[in-house]
Amino acid sequence: MDGASPLERYLERCGGQDDLSASPQLFTPMSPYDVDLPIQTTEDVLFGSQFNQPKELPTDFSSVDLSFLPDITQDNKEQNLSEDGHEMQKEPDGSTSRNEDSSTLMDESGLSYPDATQPSPEASGACPPLTPMTPMTPVTPASESSGIVPQLQNIVSTVNLACKLDLKNIALHARNAEYNPKRFAAVIMRIREPRTTALIFSSGKMVCTGAKSEEQSRLAARKYARVVQKLGFPAKFLDFKIQNMVGSCDVRFPIRLEGLVLTHQQFSSYEPELFPGLIYRMVKPRIVLLIFVSGKVVLTGAKERSEIYEAFENIYPILKGFKKAS
Amino acid sequence: MAARGSCPGCGSAALVEDAHYAQQQLVCAACGCVLAEGLLTTTYTEEEHLREVAYSQSTGQKEQLSRCLQRGIRRVQDLCKVLQLPMVFEETAVSYFQRALQHPCFHLVSLEKKELLGGCCVFVTCRQHNWPLTMGTICSLLYAKQELFASVYLSLQKELGLSVPALSLGDLVKTHLNSFRLFQHTADVPATFVEDKEKMVARTMQIVELASETWLVTGRHPVPIVTAAAFLSWQSLQPAARLTCTFARFCKLAGVDLPPPAHLRLKELLEILLRMASQLAWLRVFNMDKKTVVKHIGDLLQHRIFLLKNAFCLEDGEEQRATAPGEGSASSPPADGRRPLLPPCLINPRKRLRTAALSASDSAITGDEPISDSEIEQYLRGPEEIRAFRKAKAWS
Hints:
heterodimer, A: alpha+beta, 20% strand, elongated, B: mainly alpha, three-stranded antiparallel beta sheet, two-stranded parallel sheet, 5 strands
């Protein structure tokens, strides 16, 4: 006997029954397991063995998890949970209809799905594979990592010194400051170690640029704050935040940008009349990549170092796929 | 007909329009409270109360367009007429313009930018229909700076989420050659310089395709390449008479601008052709140079697939040969005189001062190190310095 669909066969048999009043629960998707009990008493003992192991019996429909969907295996459970959440959002109607016409799916979901040993071939036949409507990232085959690590070139950070500053005073008393109020309303200060530049505004806010790592940026910002302190202002060091990180690397082979813009049109912008590189706006993580024909890639827009690494690992297989094709 | 609203006195919704002698009144049928009276409507709200509905509201559309929008739409339509674009393009461009102006980032920009926005909409429409319009053309029509046009174009693309297909080089060749004045005999164009348009277009296309295969097109402005290719194809169709004509003179005769990068593109194209010529059996005898190779461009183009394969080592072959003896990059020159087929920026890399990677000591920084006073004091001015500065500069 096919253990996967005893209920389905039973329901097919019952389809000929006209008398709905006899077992009203039969056609109520909300409480499918109530169907089982009359079966045991009125129908063959055949089905009895199937329902002797009650696992979690969800009577409430909303708690049904759709992870029995065919492409989910035990390993991919975590990865696809978000995808399932997405699907559940998108197709609530689909799920209810699915459960109405073949309650075998309910049966499968009743089995706690860590028992992934029980395959559900009926389920795979019954429900269509769901995929997200718009690709969040371009589909890449699982491959080994590139072995290339992008190098951080610039970090931009901001900090609040929390006191009003007299910019003319600062420009007069500090050697490393320039102040041209007609051109820009901030003092431009530079220090040698770490080699950075800071824009200091009269409100007490400061922008620090040019560092090569997050720690260097923080150290540099502290040094600027100390300079301002020594100049006589009660500077503090509040809300230090990394605003942008820029990295670059080289994939070491030339890239056909015209081809890349054709296949990844929704992410890329390639205007040779304006700029020689292709501007690729990756959605996850939210990073902008500048890809050049020489194979050099610039990644920007990151708040965390890991975003840059992740973005490069995402783009490398795409670029590599391109190289073989050309 | 029952009026909208509810009576402020009793809250009933049964409002009735009644006339008290000659005066119209809005009265509550339940309690008799008079809500509104008076014939003279001076404000729009009163109109609403007596329910005189304006035409624009009844049709559900705001018929009035602001003057700025009207002017912008007229400008877009004029641009389309000047460029002789089909009617469909005009409608699409106008709809993009209206959509764009509703966005907050375009609503409050300068008039100059709004005019550029109209030009950008026309440009995007043309590109989406594969009509080969270059930014240079639009900028010259609008008397606009290219940087400003570029920024407006990029923000338009981002805000409206438009996907703009790449410029098709083939169409650009045809359009660009249309503006050349070499296809008829005139006073300043000698008879030997006149050329048949079909032949020239076909050969220019072939040269541009060759340039695209050999990495000369990617990342570069397309118009100089087309101009250089047109020059070479024109020369090669009657080399005897035309070899003496320089590039600059050719452009002046054709009535076309000579863009500055075109000279470099010409040089690169000739270098490619020379390498290909070195592989052609019956040309190996001759000592080819930049001038003489032009005579044989026809043959070179005819056999270009074979010649490219032999004249340049392709990427994969280079890698296989390099990895076998255990060598690293493709920088080692191959023994048989072939060079790898790479973009020019990789063949002649410009020597750039690369800042060294983070050294070990740098990576050990935690960001919380103590900062010594002496280090900070080096950045502060001493009192004599300050006095000297005060005297030198008048600090207002």
